Amino acid sequence: MATDGAQAQPIDGAQAQPQQPGVEYLMHPRPVSIDPEYQPSNKLQGKVALITGGDSGIGRSVSYYFALEGAVVAFTYVAGIEDKDKDETLKTIKELTKGRSGKGPIAIATDVRFEENCKKVVDQVVGEFGGIDILVNNAGYQHFNRTVEEITEDRLERTFRTNIYAHFFMIKHALAHMKEGSSIINTASQVAYQGASWLLDYSSTKGAIVAFTRSLSQFLVDRKIRVNGVAPGPIWTPLQVSAGAVPPELLATFGSASGVPMNRPGQPCEVAPSFVFLASNQMSSYMTGQVLHPNGGAIVNG
Ligand code: NAD
User: Fold this and answer.
1) Residue 5: band (very low, low, confident or very high) from pLDDT cuts 50, 70, 90
2) Phi, psi of 191, deg, nearest 5
3) pLDDT top residue among 259 and 89
4) Does the reported pTM lie above 0.70?
5) How many angstroms is it from 12 CA to the middle of ligand 1?
6) Which residues contact 300 (CB under 8 A, 6 or more apart)?
7) Which atom of ligand 1 is nearest to the CA of 163?
8) Distances (CA, A) of 222 to 33, 132, 167, 185, 195
9) Is the CB of 229 under 6 A from ligand 1?
């Protein structure tokens, strides 16, 4: 398939970046955001999509695929660190949608850990585009821990605020602007199902996201708003090279260690179509409360 070339390039294990979140423009090899063989078909024509953490990695690929499918895209990024990735994402979306009339894309700088910021993001998107049809809660923070004791209260708070509090804050404010037929998609992780000793706090938040997805789906079923999740396996993104996210000795073999039958990391473009599927009422109108598993073949019974 089209991404094989990029996946065949070995990962340079000595490319840890000094900050969180990581940045895509410094990664080598670069993640593959778009499969050149992908054939869009207006599955999200005219929909307004808000994607948190959409400047890079999985969120960037989702932004591209949603734009290719006809959606108007707004995404968030972290100012001062991710500006270059944000510019590249905006530029590419404009290229992908060249010649198309209508609004967008927009990038919004924010820190999703705090409710007032999430409200401002929602207000800006609604102010510019009139509503929200697709909300993707995707921003995430990961830091490995070799012992339980090193999980400080500050780190725990950062992990939980970024990975699960933000989901509550975003839906709390976005729901007022979401009509029947809207879709909410949350980025969980394979580690929610299989655990990961060095990701005790992170995997706990991802488990919370799965339960959040299921409970919220039941809560919103009468409003005909579908809520689903995607639980990727190891995907080559800036998260993996950001400061302290992955033990350095594991980076060089990322995705090819145990637990991945395909024996390679996935690319963002191999995950984004799951989001398209769940966002599209043509594709997944009978699905809510479910999680898709683009993870290289791991059986998770989820
Ligand atoms: P990424 O670094 O490209 O994306 C993470 C994004 O989170 C960043 O772009 C950043 O904008 C955002 N973010 C982090 N802290 C933030 C904060 N305080 N405020 C606002 N935004 C913040 O990496 P990615 O791997 O594409 O991550 C996207 C999602 O996928 C995350 O939820 C991650 O947990 C999940 N995930 C990734 C993998 C993987 O192997 N890469 C596997 C399973 C799940």
Assistant:
1) very low
2) -70, -15
3) 89
4) yes
5) 20
6) 190, 193, 194, 231, 293
7) 32
8) 35, 18, 20, 17, 33
9) no
Q: Give the Å distance between the CA of 166 and the centre of ligand 1.
A: 12
Q: Which residue matches tokens 């000094």?
A: 18
Q: Which amino acid is at 276?
A: V
- Which residue shows structure tokens 């970024």? 162
Cβ(88) to ligand 1 under 6 A?
A: no
Taken in order 210, 214, 216, 217, is the CA torsion positive or negative?
positive
Q: Which residues pair with 51 in a beta bridge?
A: 75, 136
Catalytic residues: 202
* Residues 57 and 237: beta-carbon distance below 8 Å: yes
Could you read off the pLDDT of 22-75 as tens digits, one per residue? 999 999 999 999 999 999 999 999 999 999 999 999 999 999 999 999 999 999
Domain chopping of the chain, boundaries: 45-292
Question: pLDDT for 147-194, tens place per residue?
Answer: 999 999 999 999 999 999 999 999 999 999 999 999 999 999 999 999
User: Is 212's C-beta closer than 6 angstroms to any atom of ligand 1?
Assistant: no
Evaluate: CB of 82 within 6 angstroms of ligand 1. Answer: yes
| CATH of span 45-292 | 3.40.50.720
